[in-house]
């Protein structure tokens, strides 16, 4: 397997930090042991954990006002895969890439598959795009796609999703994620019931084309690009879709797609309970669908989501197998650094949730001891689990300090010399 960053750089960066890490790990092992937690068990679970990187995340994003291109941005999916391989090489937490069609469309799928294999990367859920018009397409999505009032436009959107399934099949992907921007900007512009009926009808055609071992994830989003009404606006509507479509249909929760202050972890619990949690798009937000780096604004919320996931895992919840993906837009940072940091934040939330004393929590809940129940969660959240994450990375060939190692490698300057800066490019925000 080819590596993007020289092994000698990773090794020398790790050597400088290894002794201190071993001390910190031993010290944390002792304090966790006093709480009845075996640090090696947690480390093994963290090491086995993976979150998929979105191909569009390695390019610089933008806002509706402007996009400021970064240096050495990937020019195509092959460049993107190389950047994703850097993230995986150093963090060992991102073994899969989630593709977006048509942005990542290639003429030779075998070449793409081989490139992924050579870099040690697999392909996660396929993402379709019927929220913008591809060059030369017959019908415009300006007024919607799968729920459009025009049957030919709906048919075109269905065909596009079928194409995504076909491409994904050849890349050994096992899932399709569908997010539509369909909605309205004015009261009266569209009929809520009719447009949702049309959406469901169209999705039934997509669902019917799923291979036996595939799942489809539908993603809700409260608003934007439509600002008055959105066809798939919340988890309730999303749950109805999954119910209507059948056993291979699940709900995808993008953390940024809710109203401010919504209790997302509770939505997650409900979807788990009714076996319809398909997966996540992790990111963070302050005001809306900000697509900020995961855990950068509210790491406690991320921890509380993982607390529900670990709770489900611990009790062996039936049908529980969510897909984990990042979905972010990087406007002011090096996307590789942001994605590495975000993947590590997801691992951190997982590790913290794993050390929650669940038996004690259960007792405090039973006794209505609100203060001790919440302190039980806080005790886990306050624990600095970095030595566990770093040791998991070191032992699987990654970097103790991924960002510092990446900076020391000079990777960005090297690719900047090979990839000319362009003003355009697909910096998708979905
Ligand atoms: Mn998303």
Structure in words:
The protein has 430 residues and is α/β, with parallel strands linked by helices. 48% of the residues lie in helices and 9% in strands. It is built from 15 helices and eleven strands. The protein has helices spanning 7-34, 39-48, 77-91, 109-118, 151-170, 192-208, 235-245, 264-273, 299-314, 335-354, 358-366, 370-382, 386-395, 402-409, 411-418, and strands at residues 53-54, 96-98, 122-123, 126-127, 175-178, 183-184, 215-219, 229-230, 249-254, 277-282, 323-326. It has a six-stranded parallel beta sheet with strand order 4-5-7-9-10-11. Strands 1-2-3 form a three-stranded parallel beta sheet, covered by helices on one side. Strands 6-8 form a two-stranded antiparallel ribbon. Helix 5 links the parallel strand 4 (126-127) and strand 5. Helix 2 packs across helix 10 (335-354) and helix 11 packs antiparallel against helix 12 (370-382). The two termini are 32 Å apart. The model has no long low-confidence stretch (mean pLDDT 96). It binds manganese (II) ion. Residues 219, 254, 281, 327, 430 line the site of manganese (II) ion (MN).
Summarize this, please?
The protein has 430 residues and is α/β, with parallel strands linked by helices. The protein is 48% helix and 9% strand.
